[in-house]
Amino acid sequence: MNEVTDALNQIKEAIIEGKYEIIPQLLEGALKLGSEPKLILNEYMIPAMTEVGNRFEKHQIFIPEMMMSAKAMHAGLQIVEPLLSKAEIEPSGSFVIGTVKGDFHDIGKNIVAIMLRGNGIKVIDLGSDVSAETFVEQVKSHGAKILGMSALLTTTMMQMEHTIQLAIREGLRENVKIMVGGAPLTEGFSKKIGADCYAPNAGAAVRIARSILTNTN
Ligand code: B12
Fold this sequence. Notes:
The protein is 58% helix and 10% strand. The chain has helices at residues 3-17, 23-32, 37-57, 63-85, 107-118, 132-142, 158-169, 187-193, 202-216, and strands at 94-99, 122-125, 146-150, 177-181, 197-198. A 5-stranded parallel sheet has the order 2-1-3-4-5, with helices on both faces. The radius of gyration is 18 Å and the shape is globular. It starts with a helix and ends with a helix. Cobalamin (B12) is lined by residues 46, 49-50, 52-53, 56-57, 63, 66-67, 70, 97, 102-109, 111-112, 148-150, 152-155, 179-184, 199, 201-202, 205.
């Protein structure tokens, strides 16, 4: 294994093992060796979290380990984000994003936000555990063209429908495109609840958002 691949695999391993203290040092090393931030994120950091999920599902790890991995992922995202944003093109519209009420999973939502920002889109990130009322209020006050909602739990997915229904009641639905995502979602579910689009990953989210913003500008 060459030096670069070895450095990248160490990052993946450190996230899986939840060794957040060594993440900055490992990332700096990989970047010094010339690794692209986007490649580190897409090919090593995100797959590390997928592996964490697999191990949790097989009862090989438990919540405390999962939390350590999430902490390591956050430490890595803080370093990678400014580097990805350097590729910024001109802003083309605003995108309100958040994880739905009752759901504290924010890693995937943060990655989507980072990638959108890196593609010149103004993002208003409401964080996690966001109520339908807050989503609707924030879309109104920012005049956002897209609302993105994330859910990682089957028990919180239905919050998306509540938000869409509230947007309809508030007369906002015609002005905003609604995009949904998160591991348990499907295209069919997104159609069923009346969303405009579903994206299975951050790359697709960026592609769809750019096309919406280009067509509505
Ligand atoms: C890390 C993690 C946690 C961390 C979260 C830390 C954090 N700050 O986010 C902690 C430890 C806190 C946690 C807690 C819990 N978790 Co958890 N968690 C995970 C885990 C391992 C990884 C999630 C993750 O970060 N994935 C990596 C990211 C990059 O992927 P992603 O989120 O899917 O995002 C991508 C796409 O989905 C998409 N996307 C995501 N959001 C959006 C939004 C938009 C708008 C778009 C367009 C696209 C998009 O783009 C992203 C990037 O490509 C998953 C397992 C899994 N396989 O998903 C379980 C998992 C989601 N958790 C689960 C459970 C059960 C829980 C708990 C209920 C456990 C408990 N008993 O307490 C609690 C719930 C707490 C709460 N109320 O939210 C279950 C859910 C099962 C279900 N059917 O609902 C899973 C699937 C594990 C399992 N296999 O059982 N968890």
